[in-house]
Design a protein that fits this description.
Elements: E1 3-10, E2 13-18, E3 21-27, H1 29-33, E4 43-50, E5 53-59, E6 76-82, H2 90-102, E7 106-112, H3 119-134, E8 138-141, H4 150-153, E9 161-165, H5 172-179, E10 190-191, E11 196-197, E12 204-209, E13 212-215, H6 230-233, H7 238-241, H8 261-267, H9 273-287
Parallel strand pairs: 3-5, 6-7, 6-9, 7-8, 9-13
Antiparallel strand pairs: 1-2, 1-4, 1-12, 2-3, 4-5, 10-11, 12-13
Helix pairs in contact: 2-9
């Protein structure tokens, strides 16, 4: 039975890459009955009906899936943040990192517009970048003059399926356009009534890039943390995971518990205080969340 990966979904057809060939496939009715929608990124089994056409028979178990863009089996999320215009904001970056870590996707950080940082802010931005590197994150930085940092980002794609994420206006679309000029994604198109960038797309496609695959549309610019429970929040902070076994209480939430290794690390500047502040803010948000029925 041939196997392959869905690299594009369009108008009810799924384009499956198997070896060096692309097959235009339809899903069997059994998926509709089971309420399963094949997603771009799915590893599937299919049967060939005509040359380069076929039917999807089975979808292999996904390691993760995203709602926006609707892609499965993502290895990496490249979170784009700008050093200026808009200014670097660690809390926003931390929210993205929590969302990505909660989906068991490896995050990488791309800081754009380094050339636009005002002189008095340079040291602050450099210290943030150093902090995130020390936390174990892959961080690359580029200027607005080289299409948002394309040269720095390219090596990250090797052997991975990636999505690009980040708030509006930080340069996600510029980066994707630089990666693949045929995309022509509109940039700087801000909807004033909504206060956020508009990006419409008719389909999602994984495009080949530097030995890997990248989704051709920017991912989650809205940060929905409704699926994360308070008990699992600290597992989205690698510096807390590293210290959790040193806390006095098993299942320590690092909030008000005594002899908490995480709070001790914050007090001794081993964990940046703004990271702990982000944790507290997100924890508060989760606690105040209305219950879902």
């Amino acid at each position: 039975m041939p196997t392959g990966k869905i690299i594009k979904a369009l108008s009810g057809f799924y384009y499956v890459k198997s070896g060096n060939q692309i097959f235009q496939c339809r899903g069997r009715g059994v998926f509709r009955k089971r309420k399963i929608t094949p997603l771009v990124g799915d590893e599937i089994e299919f049967e060939e009906s005509n040359p380069n056409e076929g039917y999807i028979l089975d979808i292999k178990q996904r390691k993760n899936e995203l709602k926006r863009p609707p892609v499965a089996n993502v290895d990496q999320a490249i979170i784009v943040v700008s050093a200026a215009e808009p200014d670097f904001h660690p809390f926003l970056l931390d929210r993205f990192l929590v969302l990505v870590e909660s989906k068991h996707i490896e995050p990488a950080i791309c800081v754009t517009k380094m050339d636009l940082v005002k002189e008095k802010q340079e040291e602050l931005v450099a210290s943030y970048i150093e902090d995130y590197k020390n936390l174990g994150y892959e961080v690359v930085a580029g200027s607005s003059k080289n299409e948002g940092g394309i040269h720095e980002v390219l090596p990250l794609f090797q052997d991975k399926t990636s999505v690009i994420a980040g708030q509006s206006g930080v340069g996600k679309s510029s980066l994707l356009n630089a990666i693949h000029p045929d995309l022509n994604i509109e940039t700087n198109d801000i909807s004033h009534s909504l206060g956020r960038g508009k990006h419409t797309t008719r389909h999602i496609e994984l495009i080949e890039m530097n030995g890997g695959l990248v989704a051709d549309t920017p991912g989650f610019s809205s940060l929905d943390l409704t699926e994360i429970e308070l008990e699992e929040l600290s597992s989205c902070f690698p510096e807390m995971v590293k210290r959790q076994n040193s806390c006095k209480f098993r299942g320590c939430l690092h909030l008000n518990e005594p002899r908490c290794a995480v709070k001790e690390a914050v007090d001794t500047n081993q964990i940046p205080s703004y990271r702990y502040d982000s944790y507290l803010q997100i924890a508060e948000e989760i606690k105040n969340r209305k219950p879902r029925y």
